[in-house]
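Troubleshooting log. The previous run stalled partway through. Resubmitting the same two chains, unchanged.
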Amino acid sequence: MTSFVEFLGTWIISNTSSFGDFIIVGMKSIRSIFRRPFDTKYFLSQCSFVGVSSVPVVLMTSLAVSMVFAVQLAFGFKQFQAEGLASQVEGLAVIRELAPVITGLMLAGRVGSAMAAEIGTMRITEQIDALECLATDPVHYLFVPRFLASILMVPMLTILSIYISFWGGHFILVNLSFQSSDFYTSEFFKLISSSDLRIALIKAFVFGVIISLVGCWKGYRTQGGAVGVGAAPTSSVVTSSLWILISDFVLTKLLLV
Amino acid sequence: MPMITLHNVSKAFGDNRVLDGVSLNVEESESRVILGGSGTGKTVLLKVVLGLLRPDNGSIFVDGAEVDLDEPLALFEIRKKIGMCFQMAALFDSMTVTENISFGLSRHTSYSPSQIQSRVDECLSLVGLRGTGDLYPSELSGGMKRRVGFARAIALKPKILLFDEPTTGLDPVMTDVISKVITDLRSELRATTITITHDLKVAFIIGQNISLLHRGSIVASGNPVEFAAIQDPLVQQFIKGTSEGPFLVDSPPKRQRTLL
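Second attempt completed without errors. Output:
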């Protein structure tokens, strides 16, 4: 019993301490956005890594998920002769939920893990100490370009995901469920208002914040050599994914009211 | 006034007391070598000077300014005066040699790209690596990496150079090359240097003053002639490199068993 209480107490203290450290480092990186020098070249390379290089992954996953969802909707609504509703629900689900969440989760896996591994390796090989010795704040140099690239690129990739998902649903519902293309297009946007797109972009922005800060922070606090470098990306993906899903619920609840 | 002053500095990691009341003065343009066995806190000593580690007790002054980790802007100003050469070079592996050396110049000076390139070439010449600017760290040998690390450290013309085990793991010829490079850099820049090493040959070549760090304390200091003449059993054991004596925490086994 004593050992359980000891374990629980240690776990609570350790996690509270880690969360506090994450908040402090996160706030420091947000404050650092406005400090000079701003490394434009490094920022653009991060935009390319986070945005351009993620296009194939977002394209494939958005296409696959939207097509599976369309098949399920067509089958479900066919049970009570309401096939026309499939396009409407497809549009609603894609814009409000699927596009931002799928994009966020895929980027947590592809980009957040890479950030954790890269910065973790820099920590273990003393490259972060070298940055400090060159009078360079590692949080400013490493976090800020990744943070800005993520909050810019995740919403843009979400818009791409919505566009691809539209055509994924189009392929299934027009070609396999025999809806007309015009009908699908008009029904897809029927239940959607501009606020839905705004909600999707707000979610994508928040997911960008989570992916970049968690990835960078996990890398920055890496310790323990190769084992630590191996654990940092895994931990980053799990933590980011969890926070993406939790924040998705909170944002949906707050923004839809 | 000394260029670097450590006053009663202590640092522990858990129960392991790595530095135990270290006090040290290094004068301007002096070349100080700190000798010590593995795990005696030599690298920790450099890290507290740089403000990379917070000491548990004591104070550190560099060029008259106190190293205070709670004053990050003042700390960065102090670090601009120091060039740090890491044991394993710590080069930025995603950057070329030129990008590594120009890193500090492009961030902390208003030099034009041509001035930066000129300074990079100058630094590479000083360490004998002209023409390697387009290579990546993975394409360099261990000795070349160390010298690129030196070039990066001197790019901002620091007043102080810190060398952490500059010759560890290098062959005798490369060790001699590195020793000469350090001596040349010091005379060229007129910089104050602290070199951490356990290589006696290097210590006696580059050191104007030598100190021995043992179990977290400076136990002996002097110029090379004085240091070699110190009759303290610790110093003599370290100089002679014998296993018998007070230097080791755990004495070696008396005799080795023959493995069957």
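Takeaways: Chain A touches chain B at residues 37, 122, 125-127, 129-130, 132-137 (CB under 8 Å). Chain A is about 85% helix and 0% strand.
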